[in-house]
Amino acid sequence: MGGRAKRVTLRSVAQEAGVSLSTASLVFSGAGAVSEATAARVRAAATTVGYRGPDPVASSLRRGRSGVVAVVVEDRLLTVFRDPYAVSRLDGLASVFDEIPASMLLVSQPDGNQGAAATRLASSAFDAAVFFGCGPDAGPVLDTLRAKGVPLVAMDTPVVDDVVRVGIDERPAAAAAAAHLAELGHTRIAQVVLPCDEPAGRVRPAHDYRAERFSTPRDRMHGVADVLGDAVPTVAATASDVDAGRVAGAALLAVADPPTAIVAQSDMLALGVVLAAGERGLDVPRDLSVTGFDGITQSWWPGRLTTVEQPGAEKGREAAHLVRALLAGEAAHDVTLPTRLRVGDSTAPPRSPAPG
Amino acid sequence: MGGRAKRVTLRSVAQEAGVSLSTASLVFSGAGAVSEATAARVRAAATTVGYRGPDPVASSLRRGRSGVVAVVVEDRLLTVFRDPYAVSRLDGLASVFDEIPASMLLVSQPDGNQGAAATRLASSAFDAAVFFGCGPDAGPVLDTLRAKGVPLVAMDTPVVDDVVRVGIDERPAAAAAAAHLAELGHTRIAQVVLPCDEPAGRVRPAHDYRAERFSTPRDRMHGVADVLGDAVPTVAATASDVDAGRVAGAALLAVADPPTAIVAQSDMLALGVVLAAGERGLDVPRDLSVTGFDGITQSWWPGRLTTVEQPGAEKGREAAHLVRALLAGEAAHDVTLPTRLRVGDSTAPPRSPAPG
DNA sequence: CCAGCCTACCGAAACGATTCGACGGCGGTC
DNA sequence: GACCGCCGTCGAATCGTTTCGGTAGGCTGG
Questions:
Q1: Where in the sequence is the domain holding A244, given as residue range(s)?
Q2: B210-256 pLDDT, tens digit each
Q3: CB-based contact B105 A104, cutoff 8 Å
Q4: What is the CATH number of the domain that holds B222?
Q5: Do A57 and B67 touch (CB under 8 A)?
Q6: CB-CB: which of B84, B148, B271 is closest to A52?
Q7: Are residues B88 and B138 in the same domain?
Q8: What residues in A contact B28, CB-CB < 8 Å?
Q9: Per-residue pLDDT tens for A191-214?
Q10: Which sign, positive or negative, has the C-alpha torsion A278, A171, A178, A214?
């Protein structure tokens, strides 16, 4: 301890064991024929001289593979992982990485600081990258990843040329939620959309929203517009969490002629809307119907949210499978996963204006 | 595209620019005197030949640093990140890593499979490691990390020789929560403890619990015992989330002479207990007082939990500072952060047995 | 006008492993 | 008994960069 001892290298082991460097290497890498006797001698020598195993860096340099896959998320971890849906995608990824096997380099972009993330990516070693995100201005990061020349997999992002992508059909999925409300008889419907490059908190008609670089909120808005028209009162959230949903819901419910139903673009937002309703003394679903998106399981709201289920963990696993295929040099094609409207306890027909 | 082109190396750039390899390197690493004219020529040559920048692997090999810090969590990501407190610690880490600068290699241990995690760690390149966890059987992982010979920082783990640690004084912190309930006049108090190597779901007196390898639940139980004795009815949770808390709370409330107060070892568990109370028609805090631990902010329970606040993000930041110090070759010492009992709306004096 | 210094650049030696081709010895086959 | 092939081992080249020590040349100061 103390003085930084020179690293014990494979050469010392070979010397100690009285074999050549290459033979010693064979013992550790497992590739190649080595007699059991020699192997044992080498292993013994390794413990004698205190060898810590092949240096991963040197090994990577020679093999041309680092065994690392970069996973790039679009915000700071605190924000990203507040939504259990994001966590489930990550968990799905991780579960397949274990098999590949690959390690996960987690890169976040706090404050949308893509520059810093891009710099770190440029100087990190990895064999492939997965990037998440409903569509941030991924420019710098994407450029860096492209420059690396490694296989790329995108998840829930805008379509990008020559990047394999896993996602869902956002538009019809969102339309299904809107259609469900319309069928129940609702006519005054509003919506809460995921964070995008639109000012949050203000209620404006949907057609005022561009959300150019944010395909997920945009496509889902289009889905809603397909059913309900593009004048739906809409508010953008600041994050995909309960609190942001509550704020957005409060804004929507504070207008003169409040909606009888609200479409939220994530379950976390929807749950926030449910809270906002409660704060105004409204009961869900009696006074207000709410739909979510994602299909997370949560335990504190006594009911089950009516929501558009999408398989989060499976999305992660699919993305990881794409990574594996690309690393193996196989062709990989976009994957579109199915979604399903799950009707729960948060939607009902609107209350009749007058009884009788 | 298609055929795997040979990597463009710094040598080609140097050749193209008509300078030596070493000069070209100087241009990219920034260290050393290069005239602006030459530098420009080299950069131009780089774009001409399509150089993608210095290979991080080769660079790491030569420099002896990879710029990566491994972060080892004790379970699968889905489980770990369900508790916002864990996420805040990770976020704290990440925020300082950005400054170091370092990238984060996230290593999970699904199903407590330390073997797989250890293997992956052994073959991954990193300069230091941080490991979390209330005290899993970290044996294999810890051995691997030790064998690597890199600086280690532990967070909320049992004390380990020669590993720098950041944590809190668990025992008095837990005692404070128990004392608060005692002062309010509660006598029938039960507790929910974090997952450990004890069978979950069964109610037994605290002195039946050993939790040998899990220091956090153990130390907190001791803290409670310091105030209330060691016969407190206790149940272990299966995870630190709302659902596990609800199950545990239900078990504690189902006994013949149910408690009037419950100490939970995390806020997520406490919130689950609140739900369990609601399901039995009990009001918190009128019929049941509940204390948590951590001090997370959540928005769906209308009140504020009485809890022991501990600074999660700061813990992460402190750990990262230790990493930075160790990487710089400086000495680093254990850090113990302060905690504070925050009295909220989930505790009150017990209801008088008979009114009047 | 010369000694000496600083700047800009270069050559070569690492960093620590993997892997390809070659080589000697051994057993099996005709 | 000669030949063929295989198994175990070795030498040497290589992965792509950084960095140390040295050298040429221009500039300054005496």
A1: 170-310
A2: 888 888 999 999 999 999 999 999 999 998 999 999 999 999 999 88
A3: yes
A4: 3.40.50.2300
A5: no
A6: B148
A7: yes
A8: none
A9: 999 998 888 888 999 999 988 888
A10: positive
